Amino acid sequence: MLLLTGLDHITDEELRRFKYFAVTEFKIARSTLNTADRTELADQLIQSAGAASAVVKAISIFQKLNYMGIANALEEKKKEAESKYMTNTKKRGTQKVESRSKAEKCSVASATCSDKVFKEPSATGVCPQAKPQKKQMVAEQEAIREDLQRDPLAVMVLKAINPFECETQEGRQEIFHATVATETDFFFVKVLNAQFKDKFIPKRTIKISNYLWHSNFMEVTSFSVVVDAESNHEVRVPDNIIKKAGKTPKINKLRTQPCGTIVNGLFKVQKITEQEDRVLYGIHDGTGTMEVLVLGTQSKPKCEEGDKIRLTFFEVSKNGEKIQLKSGPCSFFKVIKAAKPKTEMKSVE
């Protein structure tokens, strides 16, 4: 919205000049930018640099062009958005810290109180007598400012895909995605260091610390710590959670999810629309149909109607009033070819 605010307030000639600088600033092909309208341009800038970085770079271009009115207005709106985000982050983080601290106290205060250390937005079944220590709260609040969670979290690995290359804020690097679970829930993990792959072995219990917690997924970076859990700290994940984690969400359910929700799943393709830098797939199941937008080089795999596509780390997005799934810089896309029918053997007499 911030990018569109800036782009909507410049003329067509000013937009053409903006695109000239964007080629170098964002490292996007000139042919791709030249044909983009304002909405498509904003989307391309975000795909190239990430939302926050794209706004900063756009402001820099406006300043170079001496469009100071737009640059200053965009800078002010950016600060307002950051302030609002930090306020919400601190509130959300405080809930997580209090819940985690209570859960840790429960294991000491009562043998019957289970260690539910990770439940968003708050842990359930914790002991009411557990109170967080003041010093711990102060230290944790400092970490919350950057969404950094220092305390180790024990999880069982359910699944991990092979590493692949993609563009991140640190440049092009190998990453992979995983699904892990506690005793009460499962969640997705984006691992920005392929060297951790040997730790993410299915059914293994590991402890992760110094990770970033986003609204609906964990991010493990090169600064995170991932170690095997001690034998007496193994996480026992109920079968219903394991089953739920491996299930492809139904399309009618996806339509009700907020934008930004991370989606993994296997979907059947019924329609394909190819463009120069993107492919639009129509997917369907017993509950309805939906579109999947795959941007950039991820549109390379050949796919035909009837094939299935496995989506990893796609996001629920909006195209006008239409809900769709859209690829991001760290999404993974795989085509699974449909089995060809066996040719009937004719008997020869």
From TrEMBL:
The keyword DNA-binding belongs to this UniProt entry's keyword annotation: no
Keywords, comma-separated and alphabetical: Nucleus
Compartments where located: Nucleus
One of the Pfam families matching this protein, by short name: HIN
Domain Pyrin: 1-80
Organism the protein comes from: Apodemus speciosus (Large Japanese field mouse)
Source lineage: Eukaryota, Metazoa, Chordata, Craniata, Vertebrata
Signal peptide feature range: none
Domain (HIN-200) ranges: 137-336
Keyword Nucleus recorded: yes
Top-level taxon of the source organism: Eukaryota
The protein's name in its UniProt record: Interferon-inducible protein AIM2
Family, per entry: Belongs to the HIN-200 family.
